[in-house]
């Protein structure tokens, strides 16, 4: 190896992967492992250990000759660029190999391949298309403006084949072989280069100047935007697969003549919103400006695509006549907005209100949910009566949306007088306390709190056991539910402290949030659609685990039995497939390794396993090794399947779940909580004889029990990720009730694992 080359690669030793490992992962570069081909060489997939762990990877085997160093610069450039520029929307370099005249690059695996393969696919909805374009734009924007941490990078070959998609349809920009480094502090880096890019995507200014700038990438990305809009590549091919015609001029003319309907892709069930189409096509057209100075920056492209996506995803309620008729109401209430709102269209007004605005001199936070229902939060400064026990009650250091900041409470004892003004009539609301606190590292997105509270004039206290983290970074505990009969409601809530030690809380306010509900009618899908693809490849091996359950003559009959489920492994386990063909697996209480103070094991004909366990004390464990063959490669939810005793008075408190990580019983840094009995939030009724509240059909929430079709109860208690790195998955969980009572009388049938 050349000495200079060896010195250069020495900097990246942490990325080095042995050729032997690569040949093993690709079955010696077997054709069955090949997923791509091009002038650069072939791309293979395989499972490989690398600096980030072990996973499926994409392996690019370059068609280069390292003995005379032809093409070496492109190989080294990929290593240098992708190790320096890291972003969630750039493909990641996981390693490289330079051995025995081989130059190989190892990337993260984008399982769905490149965008070009889906341009004319109905599977790619307009929401998918907008998000993919936005992802790619964010990646390019990072390259063009890396915030001073690196030099600017001009990609030089932006095109749909170089935008890769992972299994969640997230887009990642790839292939930096032609990229060029510019200066980060220069507004316009002009580089003379022979790196022309790809026909159809090339900046027309390049033909005249042989220079490329970041605006050249913008032009190429504009071509990609039109490809996504039109559902086809930017060129046609002749019978010899040579480029016959470039379609970009036709697309530009269609935009200028307001004839987008003639070129837009129309094979999708849900069309692109007209306002979103206007924004999307406008920014795509601006990218294709002949003059580089007139093209937008990638940061501007990101902003416009975000707007297009927001508008496309706006609910139908915003576009209805009802919304248009109530615009005057919103225009009236936002007169008190701080700062004043600037908007030109009613769509923009909806977007602003969906994000939330401050009203009433900064004392009220008002927003709309996706159904057009009103959400309202009253600031702590407007509703909390400070306790005499709090020396320094107010704080401004927690990034509150309210100018007053937060209320500092050590004991959780204070009084609130809350008056709403903007509720939607005839909507069921939850009343929540919103705050921040310093929780231990073991906290998950839910934490045990046990806050006591009551309404003024009532003697019975309620307990809010769990506090959950919101998307905005604040914590929230649900206090009450009620159905509004007018826009305003007055509540006096007395908070009476915590039942257990809890950190200081910084209260932001009291929130009225519409109760999320789900439609009872769920779409019924045909499980036999694509049944041959859903039947596992190892179905014959799974059948052998059953004694007599699976007897059939055709593969379709086997699939039908797999969907219904059957007993395996001495009738102590249950195997089935879900509607998507993913493996589901249930263990009896015996097979799940239930440990603890057990009252008795007893037979129960109503159980599919014939035997159940009945608990006695406050704590029990689940300890089991699970064969990975019985699960699919993905994330699984773990459910406890059980029945409660007749006397359920001791089951109000949640149960804590900790993963046991060593023989001493030490827990991991993650804690989950769940309820064995459906947690009933107190309901506020307008009058004693009225009962307008119906809290049924709430969405399924992790940790809240559900009734199963087989008569048992189930609740999600944990989540695990299956991998191909081990033949067995070890599960060891310790479950402890948070209440003072025991779990005596709780009957456990088993533990079930289902795909998330």
TrEMBL record:
GO terms for cellular component: plasma membrane. SMART domains: S_TKc. ATP binds at residue 60. GO terms for molecular function: ATP binding; protein kinase activity; protein serine/threonine kinase activity; transmembrane receptor protein tyrosine kinase activity. Residues 29-315 form the Protein kinase domain. Signal peptide: none annotated. Keywords: ATP-binding, Kinase, Nucleotide-binding, Serine/threonine-protein kinase, Transferase. It holds the Pfam family PK_Tyr_Ser-Thr. InterPro entries: ANXUR1/2-like (IPR045272), Kinase-like_dom_sf (IPR011009), PP2-like (IPR025886), Prot_kinase_dom (IPR000719), Protein_kinase_ATP_BS (IPR017441), Ser-Thr/Tyr_kinase_cat_dom (IPR001245), Ser/Thr_kinase_AS (IPR008271). It comes from the Eukaryota. PANTHER family: OS07G0166700 PROTEIN, TYROSINE-PROTEIN KINASE, NON-RECEPTOR JAK_TYK2-RELATED. This is Protein kinase domain-containing protein. It comes from Helianthus annuus (Common sunflower). The lineage of its organism: Eukaryota, Viridiplantae, Streptophyta, Embryophyta, Tracheophyta.
